[in-house]
């Protein structure tokens, strides 16, 4: 009888341990998946990979974003508008814009929504004069899991405040 | 018998109509609730109402914030405790809009014209801010979990 109780106790402990490990492993994996969106975004941007970039966004008129430049000062709405911007940016000579990602971090808002924050250092090379300039950008991506995939539903990129 | 069947049919139609109308009414109300957050946020700053402002934020170390000024340049983590001190700021909110992500998460955006009056010289300045608020329904209340405020880009 004592052995049986002992066996039950060990089973319970194992069950509790398994449940606790599984949920934290799941959370870690969801966070990693979310961070991967930001990493893939940089990869798509630097490699001018439109297909990859397109796969990261919600193709909906409800997609919205504020960009860091003057041409993206107002709220951009809908995938079609973003598609146009990326296509014209990717048509520029290779190396015109190069971004490096810093400190990406994710905050999970339940199982199917999350916020990613990060910094970019951007090097812009003028295609004609080859003159270079450097900019620092703060980026927020709001992502949502749709059809099993994390997609960007809102982004807000802004330059570092200077005053 | 015919009357009973007709009554049954009408009841079914009424039920279908109710079911059809209820989710959109709920969605509209949730959107209004989310819009209220950005409206109250603007009001709290203008009225220097620290308790109203604090009530709008998720009081968690996970709350994060990119501010429009140099003091908020880097990501601040943890919830905001009060309205900006010193300056006399009035916020005018325009074009607030909400995008519902799930039943419990949404994004609110808007433009804010901030009129800042220097308390000593009384000199006024204007700043135009683009505002993103990510909100989450926690304990039945929509709370700000992330904020990104940035000045209108000039170049």
Description of the molecule:
The complex is a heterodimer of chains A (163) and B (155). Chain A is of the alpha+beta class and 163 residues long. Chain A has a single domain (2-159), classed as Nuclear Transport Factor 2, Chain: A (Roll), CATH 3.10.450.50. Helices cover 39% and strands 34% of the residues of chain A. Chain A is built from three helices and six strands, in the order ααββαββββ. Chain A has a six-stranded mixed β-sheet, with helices on one face. In chain A, strand 3 (97-108) and strand 4 (113-125) form a beta hairpin. Chain A is elongated and about 85 Å long. Chain A starts with a helix and ends with a strand. The mean pLDDT of chain A is 89. Chain B is elongated. A six-stranded mixed β-sheet of chain B has the order 2-1-6-5-4-3, with helices on one face. Chain B has one domain: Roll (Nuclear Transport Factor 2, Chain: A), CATH 3.10.450. The longest helix of chain B is centred in the first third of the chain and has 45 residues, at 2-46. In chain B, a hairpin with a 4-residue loop joins strand 3 and strand 4. Chain B is built from two helices and six strands; from the N terminus they run ααββββββ. Chain B is α+β, with helices and mostly antiparallel strands. At the A-B interface, strand 4, strand 5 and strand 6 of A face strand 3, strand 4, strand 5 and strand 6 of B.
List the helices and strands and how they pair.
The complex is a heterodimer of chains A (163) and B (155).
Chain A: H1 2-46, H2 50-56, E1 64-66, E2 76-77, H3 79-90, E3 97-108, E4 113-125, E5 132-146, E6 149-159
Parallel strand pairs in A: 1-6
Antiparallel strand pairs in A: 1-2, 3-4, 4-5, 5-6
Helix pairs in contact in A: 1-2
Chain B: H1 2-46, H2 50-56, E1 64-66, E2 76-77, E3 88-100, E4 105-117, E5 124-138, E6 141-151
Parallel strand pairs in B: 1-6
Antiparallel strand pairs in B: 1-2, 3-4, 4-5, 5-6
């Amino acid at each position: 009888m004592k052995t049986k109780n002992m066996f039950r106790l060990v089973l319970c402990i194992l069950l509790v341990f398994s449940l606790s490990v599984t949920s934290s492993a799941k959370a870690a994996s969801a966070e990693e998946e979310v961070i991967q969106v930001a990493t893939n975004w940089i990869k798509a941007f630097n490699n001018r990979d439109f297909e990859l970039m397109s796969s990261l966004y919600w193709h909906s008129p409800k997609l919205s974003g504020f960009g860091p430049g003057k041409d993206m000062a107002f709220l951009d709405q809908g995938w079609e508008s973003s598609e146009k911007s990326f296509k014209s940016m990717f048509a520029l000579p290779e190396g015109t814009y190069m971004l490096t990602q810093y400190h990406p971090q994710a905050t999970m808002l339940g199982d199917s929504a999350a916020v990613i924050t990060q910094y970019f250092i951007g090097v812009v090379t003028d295609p004609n004069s080859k003159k270079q300039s450097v900019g620092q950008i703060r980026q927020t991506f709001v992502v949502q899991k749709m059809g099993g995939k994390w997609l960007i539903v809102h982004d807000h990129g802004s330059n570092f405040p200077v005053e | 018998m015919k009357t009973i069947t007709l009554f049954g049919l009408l009841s079914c139609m009424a039920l279908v109509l109710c079911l059809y109308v209820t989710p959109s009414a709920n969605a509209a109300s949730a959107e209004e609730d989310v819009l209220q957050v950005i409206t109250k946020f603007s009001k709290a700053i203008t009225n220097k109402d620290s308790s109203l402002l604090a009530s709008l934020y998720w009081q968690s170390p996970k709350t994060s914030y990119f501010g429009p000024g140099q003091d908020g340049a880097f990501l601040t983590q943890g919830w905001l405790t009060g309205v900006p001190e010193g300056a006399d700021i009035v916020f005018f909110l325009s074009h607030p809009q909400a995008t519902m992500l799930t039943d419990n998460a949404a994004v609110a955006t808007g433009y804010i014209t901030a009129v800042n009056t220097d308390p000593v010289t009384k000199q006024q300045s204007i700043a135009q801010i683009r505002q993103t608020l990510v909100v989450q329904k926690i304990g039945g209340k929509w709370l700000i979990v992330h904020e990104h405020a940035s000045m209108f880009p000039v170049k």
